[in-house]
C-alpha cells in the first residue's frame, strides 16, 4: 500500500524543499536549499549567473534528480507523485522551441494537442482566451518567425498557461527583452495570482523582482542567502541614518534620542546603533525622509550638530550585493537572516 504521509492536495504551501542539493561531480550547483512558496505568491528566485536557479527549477520539474533533500509540491512528495503533479505545473525554461513557420495560434494548437486537450470548440475557446490574455489576438495568424522577442516570450507564457496549471515556473522570462517587452511581461505575470496561480520566477533582474514579487529568495553559489517578503526587505528603505562627529556626541545623541522617544517624539521609537561601511558609528532611525529636518532641529536644540544625515536607499540590488559581498555594505545588516550564510559569499 502506498504511504499517504504528507499528502495534502489543497496545501497552502505550493513548493517546499528541504535540504535540496545537487552536485555535478565535485561542483555543488545547489546546496541544502530550504524554500517555501505559498499559494498565490509571486515568488522571486534571485541569483547571479551560475548560482543554481535553473538547476533548482529543473529539480522541481523532475528533470534533474536531486543528490539529496526533498521536494514537496502541493503538499505531496514530488518524487513519488511526479506524473500526477506535472499537469498542475506550467513552465518556461530557457527559450522554448516553437515551429517558426507556423502561426502563433497553430503553435498553441500543437501544444494543446501534446498536452492532451482534444481539438474542438472547447479547445478553440481556450486558445482565444489565452491569446487575449497574452495580447496576441491581433497577430495570432502571423508566422512565429515574424514575432518580436517579447511576442515570443508572451506566446511561451500562453503555452505554459494553456492547461490552466496552478503553479507557473518561469526561468528568466524577461531575458533579452527591451523595456516595453519587460513591462508587458511584468503586467502579465502580475495578473496571474488573481487567476488563482502561484508563480515561481527566477531572475537576475533585481529591480524586476522588486516590482512584481511579494516574496523573494536570494541564491548565490547554490546557497540560500535570504528568504522573506519583499516588503520586509524594503522596510529598510524607510530609514534615516544619522552620523555625529565624535564618539562623545554619539553617546549624547543616543541618550537624547532615547529620551525623546519616551517623551514628545514617540515616532523615534525604532532606532538602531550600527556601523556604516567606513566603520563609523551611526543611528538608523525607522522614519520617513520627511522627518530628517525635524531630527536635525531636535538635536541642534541640545547643541548636537549632525555630521551627516541621509535616507538609506536600499533596494534588492543593494541587499543582493551586500549579501554576496560584491560591494561594501552601506550599513550593518541587523535584520538579515543567516549572516553565517552570507559569509559564504566572501570567499570567491
Ligand atoms: N548538466 C550540468 N553538468 C555540470 N554542471 C552543471 C550542469 N548544469 C549546471 N551546472 C553547473 O551548476 C551551476 C549552476 O548552474 P545553473 O544553470 O543552475 O545556474 P543559474 O543560476 O541558472 O545560471 P544562469 O542565470 O546563468 O542560467 C553552474 O556552475 C553550472 O555550470
UniProtKB/TrEMBL annotation:
Region of interest (Disordered), residue spans: 327-348
Keyword Nucleotide-binding (UniProt): yes
Cited SMART domains: AAA
Keywords, comma-separated and alphabetical: ATP-binding, Nucleotide-binding, Transport
Domain of life: Bacteria
SUPFAM superfamilies: P-loop containing nucleoside triphosphate hydrolases
GO MF terms, alphabetically ordered: ATP binding; ATP hydrolysis activity
Alphabetical list of InterPro entries matching this protein: AAA+_ATPase, ABC_transporter-like_ATP-bd, ABC_transporter-like_CS, P-loop_NTPase
Xref: Pfam families: ABC_tran
UniProt protein name: ABC transporter ATP-binding protein
Organism field: Dictyobacter vulcani
